[in-house]
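Entry 14. Structure prediction run on the chain below.
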Amino acid sequence: SLEMDSTALAFALSEDPEDYECEENTGDLGRGVVSTLLSTIGETATDLQAWEQALRIVQELAPAESGAALRVEPDGRLRFVAATGPKAAGVVGVVLPGGTGIIGFCVARKVGLVVSRPQRDPRFFGEMDRITGYATKNVLCVPVRDPQEAGHVWGCLELLNADSNFGRSQLELADDVAAALASRLARG
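Output returned:
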């Protein structure tokens, strides 16, 4: 079930298990290297720099063709504050209604997801692909949530199109990056 508490990580579920197969391939990253990378998020001067640094790190830890950092606006909408990849320039600044797509689901439910065939997932917002001309093949998305304040979510980090499907280890690494970003944002 995707109804989980705020600390749970979930893989999207489907009636067809092959839709969500995952390959566990993160390489041999030492915890020290990861800790050093995560500490750079806390050293950023501005919130925007923290979002951008978190996106760079998550994409380094879970390589993907594209990525995005989305912030929850005061009215609940989701704003693309940073992006990487071939269509990045066209999405930075775009604002979507709260609850839109896989990103909206992750933010609302405070749960990370890996979706290997997004076009077959009812939560997928294919309009972004149509607008940008981008073809989303797989998605990893984690909420940026305050572990101390269960109700607060700043937004999410999303990766698109890994060479092979994202796996649980990439989801956990992305969640670590999101937690480091949340700690930085909580300090203001």
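Residues 1-28 have pLDDT under 50 and may be disordered.
Filed with the rest of this week's runs.
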